[in-house]
C-alpha cells in the first residue's frame, strides 16, 4: 500500500538519518577537546562506517532499482530518488572527512612529532631504509599485471588497495598506452615506520613506497602516471535456503561468492590521470557519480593504525579500570549470590569479568550439568569459546551460533566446527531468522540438593574485547520465571517449539512487537487517567513505523517521551500537535552506546526492560531477540536514578534531534545548562570519584518544562 502524504510527513528518511549519525561521529574527530589520537580513531571509524553502508545499503538500493522496485520509503522517496540524494550526501561527507584530515589532524600530528611523509621528504637514512624494506619485505609479495589481450583485467577484491599504472612501451612510443595494476599486500602495514629521532614517529605510505619502484617492476615500459584506487563491491548475502544442503555450507559458499559482487564505488586519488580514472570506471561498469575522489590517502579507515601503534598515551583518553564485582560477605560464590539477589552490570564501567567467569564456572563446575549459550559475535581468542569447548567434554553443552552475523561469518564458522569437534551440540537457530539474543543458561545441582537454573541475559555480544568500549548491560539471575522462559527460548531456537506467551520475556519475532505496542498504549491510558505517564527508551536505532505511530499517539495523549537513539531515527520530534512531547537525543562519545533500555512509568509503578533489540523491523520481525524485565529493586533503582538520568542530563556529547532530522549540540541548544558528560560521570562514579548528586536535571525546551513534572527517571 502506498504511503499517504500525511503519513510521509511523519517520518524522516532513513538514509538522511544515517548520514546525520556519521556526521556526529565526524564531529568527534573535529572536536579539539578530544585527545588527538582519539580524533584520528573517530575519523577512521567514520570511514569504516561508510564502507559498510556503501557495500550494504547503497548496494541494496541499486539492486532494488534494477529489480524494478518503485515503492516509496519512509520519507516518500522512491529508491532511485533515495539513491540520488544518498550519493550526493556521501560525496559531501567524503569531502568533509578529508578536510578534517588535511586541515586539522595531519598538521596537529606533525606538531606532536608524528609525521606522514611524502617520498620527497625522506632524508638519506630514511630513503635507504625504505628501499631495503621494499626489497626484503614488499617486493616478494607483489604481482605486477599489465592489461592486454593475453592478460585481462584482474579480479580486484572488495576494498583491496591497488595501484593503477599508465604505461607506454619504450620500443613503441607512438603505440597505445597500457594499463597496469598492482595490488598492495594486505599482509603488510599500510604505514611503513621510518628511522627517526627519539620522541618522533615518521611514516611512509606503503603504496607510495611501491610507487617509487614501479619502473623496476615494469621493465621495458615507461611509467606515464599512477594512482592508488580501491573498489567497494556489493556485499549483500543472498541464498535459497530450501535448495541448500545445510545452512553452514550455504554461508561458506556465499563467503566465496561475495568476492564476485558487483562494484558499487571507486575511490581514487584526486590527482589521478583522467585516462586512468576513465579506464577503471569503464572496467568496473560504474557511473561518474560512483567515483569518489580522495584528497589524501585512499581508505581512511586504515588511519586506525596510528591509534593502535603510536605509543603516545598522552594523546588518548585517560585509561581507567572497570569496577570489579564484589560479592556479599556471606556469599560462598556467584551461584550462592544469585540465589539471594540479581546482579546488574553496566559495561564498561563495571568489569566484564563476571560474565566470563559465569560461563567459565559453568564449564568447570561439576555441579553444573547443562550449559546453553547463544553466540552472535565474539573475539578471536575468546575465553567464552574456550570455556564452551571445554564444557563439551564433561557436560551437556549446547551453543546456538549465528552464522550470518554480517562480516563475522568466517570466524563463526570456525567456532562452530571446532565446538562440534569438541562434543558441543551446535545449532544455527531458526531458518530465515538471525539469532541475535544474548543468553547463557546453566542448570546446576546446588548444595542443598535442589536443581536450579541460572542465567546471564545481556544487551551486547559475548565479546570481552568490545565490552571495554561498548556500553552494555548484563543481568545475572536465578529468577525462576525468567530462567524458565529462557529455557523455552532455547527450545524455540533448537526445535522451533513455539509458545503463545513467553512472559515475562518479550521474544521476537513471536511476542515482542505486540507487547511493546501494548506497553506504549498502557502509558497512553495512564495519561488519560491523570496518572504518571512517561517513556524513556534507549536504543541504537528507531526505524519501525508502527512503533513511531504509537509513540505519536501516546504523546498526543499527554505521555512525556524521551528517546536516546545513537544512530538512525525516522521519528520527527517536536512537531506541534504530533510529537511536541517527544524529545530525541543521540550521544556519541568515547564509548559506543550499545545498550537498549526501555522504561515505562506505568502510573507510578515503574517497569524496566533491557535486551538485545532495537525498535527496528529487522529486530522485531526478522530476528530471534529477547528483551527481559529488571525486577531486583537495587537494579531498578540503579537504572532509574543513575544510568538513564545521566544520559538525559548530558550536555557535552549529546545532540538533540530537530524535526527535519538534523541535530544540534545540546551545549549550543541549552547554553545556560551546566557542562555534563554522561560517560565521564559514569567513569568517575565507577572509580568512586562522584556521586548521584552530581547529575543535574535534564535540559528541556521551555514549553516542555512548563507542562511536565521534572523530566527525569526516579524509582517509585
Task: Give structural notes.
The protein has 716 residues and is α/β, with parallel strands linked by helices. The chain folds into 4 domains: 1-112, Methane Monooxygenase Hydroxylase, Chain G, domain 1 (Up-down Bundle); 114-314, polyphosphate kinase like, CATH 3.30.1840.10; 334-495, Endonuclease Chain A (Endonuclease, Chain A); 506-707, Endonuclease, Chain A, CATH 3.30.870. 37% of the residues lie in helices and 21% in strands. The protein contains 22 helices and 27 strands. The strands form 4 sheets. Strands 14, 18, 19, 20, 21, 23, 24, 25, 26 and 27 form a 10-stranded mixed beta sheet that branches. Helix 3 (36-66) runs antiparallel to helix 4 (79-111). It is globular. It starts with a helix and ends in a 9-residue tail after the last helix.
Number of domains: 4
Query: What is the strand tally?
Result: 27
Distance between the termini: 44 Å
What fold name goes in the CATH topology slot of the largest domain?
Answer: Endonuclease, Chain A
Largest sheet: 10 strands, mixed
Helix content: 25-40%
Kindly provide the radius of gyration, computed on alpha-carbon positions and rounded to a whole number of angstroms: 27 Å
Strand residue content: 15-25%
* CATH homologous superfamily assignment of the largest domain: Endonuclease Chain A
CATH architecture of the largest domain: 2-Layer Sandwich
How would the global form be characterised?
A: globular
User: Unreliable segments (pLDDT under 50, ≥5 consecutive)?
Assistant: 1-6, 238-245, 256-260, 705-712
Oligomer: single chain
Number of helices: 22
